[in-house]
Amino acid sequence: MGRYPWAEVLLFKVLHIIVFYPTRQHAHRVVILVAMAYVAAQVYLTPEVTDPIKVTYTVGCGVAFHFAFATYRLFAEGPFPDHWRRFRDEVHAKANAGGSDVLPSNLPLTKKLWWMIDIAHNYRMIGWVQGPRNYLSPHPPPSRLTFLKKTFLKLIINSIIADLAISVTALNPAFDSRLHDPTDGPETYLAAVPLLRRVPYVLACSLMLATGMGVLYNTMALVCVGIGCSSPTQWPDVWGDWRDAYTVRKFWGYVL
């Protein structure tokens, strides 16, 4: 088995932040994007890395998603970087007596750093003027104590559901690739499981992923809001109410 490409993965993460450096020089973004594509290729071409499969799958999906989303964000909506603005940046405030706006490309270096980290990982654009508002009904911000209580309850519920879902998938060897080798028969794979049993297994696997993300999200929300570095408005529910998923727009705008 070959080495796991942790150095390349770390370098890709660094490039993923650097590519959003707020400068009007388009050559900077082109060069960094090319470097990201090269490093991503090195990650994918690393030979004989199959275990642990869950880590490999997660890293592979993350690299592809980050590259695709960075490319979209840089080229698909408005001139970068001054089109992308956060409410708290006060980019429209007058910077000096001459009356020039404090644009992202003119921010101090420390603010540029946090701006880069935020735009690189804030996929839902929470706190940015680009955030979707036309079809999302506004919610009054809860008090900090109310938010912490509700989030802690969601954390407990997500943890219980995730544990139950993990127990269901753990009972089926088709979900554990370590049990497979060239001598295995087809009966050890999920495709060989009868349909009426296969559907609950797949739903349980999906539920495990969704609630697992919810546990991580709720934990981070509790910590950040609890120590006072974030406000409750910056931590909306990671998943919406499934009762709102009766149209395509509401499914993508409210639920996911």
Short note summarizing the structure:
Helices cover about 55% and strands about 0% of the residues.
Describe this structure in words.
The protein has 256 residues and is mostly helical. Helices cover 53% and strands 0% of the residues. The chain is built from seven helices and no strands. The longest helix has 32 residues, at 195-226. The radius of gyration is 22 Å and the shape is globular.
Oligomeric status of the shown chains?
single chain
Give Rg in angstroms: 22 Å
Poorly predicted residue ranges: 95-99
Structural class assignment: mainly alpha
- Rounded to the nearest angstrom, the distance between the terminal CA atoms is 38 Å
Average of the residue pLDDT scores: 79
Strand content: under 5%
Order of helices and strands: HHHHHHH
Largest sheet: none
Q: How many E-type strands?
A: 0
Whole-number count of domains: 2
Specify the helix fraction band: 40-55%
Taken from the alpha-carbon principal axes, the silhouette is globular
Number of helical regions: 7
